[in-house]
Amino acid sequence: MATARTENLGTALMGLNKQNGQLRGQTKPASVQPAPTTLGKAMGALQKAGCPPQEGGGIKFGDDWKRSLKLPPRDTRVRTSDVTSTKGNEFEDYCLKRELLMGIFEMGWEKPSPIQEESIPIALSGRDILARAKNGTGKSGAYLIPMLERIDLKKDYIQAMVMVPTRELALQVSQISIQISKHLGGVKVMATTGGTNLRDDILRLDEMVRTFRSSLVHVVIATPGRILDLIKKGVAKGG
To answer: Among 49, 29, 6, 14, which residue's Cα sits nearest to residue 128?
Structure first.
């Protein structure tokens, strides 16, 4: 099994080079931030998609949709530069579905953090990303937001898989996924980890297939050993 060396690595985000016929960004040293053109191209692609960023609050949807949101109390904790040193972008600047934006704001996420600003546009463009940031800087949102944006509810199979090292993290990530996707109209998230009965997970997936004639699970959050077990059993199948 391949292992990754993590010593002497600073906060980094880079595109991976072209392998197996996949178009990816240029490889960058871990200590070097991605070139502005990489992020600029991703933002440019979003603008060409017919959703250009606008000054003073981002995309306008024609109604005051934010007024109906159930926002949590404002976080008054002191924030470090790992969270506050942003470029001034808004979540609306990324052409996200309004329903996804509703979930984001109801999580209490007001503006994208630095790691989210760097990751989200590139991930939305379909490119692979290798990113690293400190705990509490918004890493979960950096990959969950573009992942959920790309979920197609018309496709009844597993479309995204998140691998996490511990049961606690799997439960945490699944709860965040459920929260920010709650307005999307039916995104199904399943957490499965070691330390629980494998048969129960198999029965959960099998019951959905028999009842609805489809998996009806779009996102699986799992520890490595458990998802390998489900794949070997032929239960966890992607598109």
So the answer is: 14
Largest CA distance in the chain: 53
The C-alpha atoms of residue 168 and residue 170 are separated, in whole angstroms, by 5
Which positions ≥6 away from 128 have C-beta within 8 Å? Answer: 15, 16, 22, 24, 25
* Cβ-based neighbour number of residue 229 at 10 Å: 18
Please provide the DSSP assignment of 96-138 as one string. --HHHHHHHHHTT--S--HHHHHHHHHHHTT--EEEE--TTSS
Where do the domains of the chain lie, and which CATH numbers do they carry?
25-150 (no CATH), 152-239 (3.40.50.300)
Mean pLDDT, the chain cut into blocks of 10 residues (239 residues total)? 40 44 42 57 61 44 70 75 80 93 93 93 92 88 96 88 93 95 90 82 68 69 90 74
**Burial annotation 44-72 (CB, 10 A radius, 16+ → b, else e):** eebeeeeeeeeeeebbeeeeeeeeeeeee
